[in-house]
Amino acid sequence: MATFVDKFPDEAKVVQASFAVAFIALGIGALFGLIQALHRTNVLRVIDSVDYYTLLTAHGVLLALVFTIFFLVGLFTWAVTRSFGRALPDIRLTWAWFGLMTTGTVLATVAIVAGLFPQIPMSADVLYTFYAPLQAHPIFYIGLAMFIIGTWMAGADWFLAYREWRGENPDSRIPLQAFMVLTTMIMWYVSTLGVAVSVVFFLIPWSLGLIETVNPLLTRTLFWYFGHPVVYFWLMPAYLLWYTVLPKLAGGRLFSDPLARVVFVLFVLLSTPVGIHHQYVDPGIAEGFKFIAMTNTMFLLLPSLLTAFTVVASVEHGARQRGGEGYLSWLGALPWRDPAFAGMALAGLMFAAGGFSGMINAGMNINYLVHNTLWVPGHFHMTVGTAVALTMMAGTYWLLPQLTGKAVYSRPIGLLQVIMWFIGMVFMSNAMHRAGLFGVPRRTAEPQYQNFDFVAAVGSVGEIRMQIAFGSLLLFLSVVLFLFNVAATWADDRVDTPVDDTIPEPLSPSSGAPLVLDNLALWTGIAVLLVVLAYTLPLASIVNDAGLLGGSPTFPVTVSLEWVVDVTVGALGNLSLDSLAGVAPADAVADLVREVRR
Ligand code: HAS
Ligand code: CU1
């Protein structure tokens, strides 16, 4: 039976190439993750603490940006091609965006990894949330800019395919998978504007020395303007698979096509005007703006809650088709031995927990308790690290045969691998959440302050560290098995019918969806309006407070004692000492400062 690679051999090559880059990034990123987890839990230290931040940056960039987004462009290319049932308009454009993204990735990675070698005058230890005052080598920002422009071109490629298809099918509904791709890309265009402005107008000129200072709060706010929607950019490929592939793997059909469209439209509208929920503790943004971001975030729960309903209903339908019965015992009728099904279903189950910790993050007052603690990495290892990453790995077991014409090398290894990921993540992210509640900080190689004990409500800090270390080891081994299985599949021979690649019609089909849902221009217009409403005043007040170029010099990642003394004395020098007179401790400090100044 002809499958994707037979019908669209050129597109299949691009998808395979995108997956290959994604999986290389996954392997390197996972290794760095293991080294870090063992380091900060003090189980095994093979690097200097100074290098921890270099590895942390590489881990974040390679996994959260490169692995996820390269998988996304591959998946979306497959989805657009198969759902329009036609080749892409110009395969040279397709290879061009792939080439640009890959070159950008290589440049950014070189800039980061160079930080491990003191003899190379280049580093980018700025973490994957790359805002000022931390500064990277210009090559890092230039690489990222190329990567993002590559994704824009990919979107253009898919919109051109849509235009061609529309020309021949003026009255048809947009096929569901293509609808998901196009709406996701609209969200991406709106949201990457923030990071593009930050990188092109501020970070690149600043790192090249063309401007001396930047306004750190401005680059931070522009980053988070993009930094929240990017999490849905990672999530939408997983949703595409949960909506269109998971029900089929479960033995059933999607419950409702119209509801799926509503969900994706809601993401276009609401993903961006919420970014300030990452800045609840930032000074310089009025509480009222934070409150608006919180309210929008709570509305943004809706599409995911609708997804939980629709996808679980579809899976239950599948189970009942397979003879499942009862309120819950239908769960046993599901094809748990199929790695593609089991991986995606486990990813979805963990997302229910990760979504819950997201709701906690989103509450402004509770956020003060968890912000900048290990709770937050706990949250995102359940969301991007499992809902997304595990779905992508599981999806590979179903997609790779269509792209290569080869059967998966070992389904039992695949099953073992997805289960190991789930169990590893249960250990690691649960322990991270608990550690966060004790106040253990994130983004540090040395969480254990001297002469200070974290107090555990239940269990002990040592036990939590062991769980994190053990979980990270399972996760790493799971990636090794995954990469082995994929490489062995690639190396195998072609078979006649590698996989059943059909996707059945939804129970409630697209003909029942209101036509307005397919009006992409309308949703884009409303999305832009909501962004303007949510961001004009906060940005205006940030620029008004400190100017477009602010006043922050570069802040080094590792600081010497001399640097601390210089900066402290400099800051104290700006204080008016007389204004402190009369306050007894202040007098003492003032005396000290006079002493230092002399
Ligand atoms: Fe988040 C921080 C709020 C979702 C990722 N988040 C982060 C960071 C990352 C991240 C990476 O409001 C850290 C950034 C940094 O480095 O500082 N997040 C939320 C909220 C949601 C949410 C409200 N986050 C995500 C997703 C991510 C992600 C998705 C990646 C993919 N997050 C926050 C906030 C912060 C934050 C604050 C800042 C914290 C701070 O202080 O720094 C919501 O979208 C979640 C909604 C989800 C649900 C769950 C629905 C359940 C479903 C399961 C269906 C079941 C199936 C199984 C399919 C309501 C859909 C079926 C199978 C069977 C067998 C039946
Ligand atoms: Cu967010």
From TrEMBL:
Membrane topology value: Multi-pass membrane protein
Record bears the keyword Protein transport: no
Entry-linked InterPro entries: Ba3-like_Oxidase_I, Cyt_c_oxase-like_su1_dom, Cyt_c_oxase-like_su1_sf, Cyt_C_Oxase_1, Cyt_c_Oxase_su1_BS
Record field: transmembrane: 17-38, 58-81, 93-118, 138-160, 181-204, 224-246, 258-278, 298-319, 340-360, 380-400, 412-432, 468-488, 520-543
One GO cellular component term: membrane
Domain Cytochrome oxidase subunit I profile span(s) in chain numbering: 19-517
Location in or out of the cell: Membrane
Keyword entries, A-Z: Electron transport, Heme, Iron, Membrane, Metal-binding, Respiratory chain, Transmembrane, Transmembrane helix, Transport
Chief place where the protein resides: membrane
A Pfam family matched in the record: COX1
Entry annotated with the keyword Metal-binding: yes
Family of the protein in this entry: Belongs to the heme-copper respiratory oxidase family.
Protein name per the record: B(O/a)3-type cytochrome-c oxidase subunit 1
Organism, scientific name: Halobellus rarus
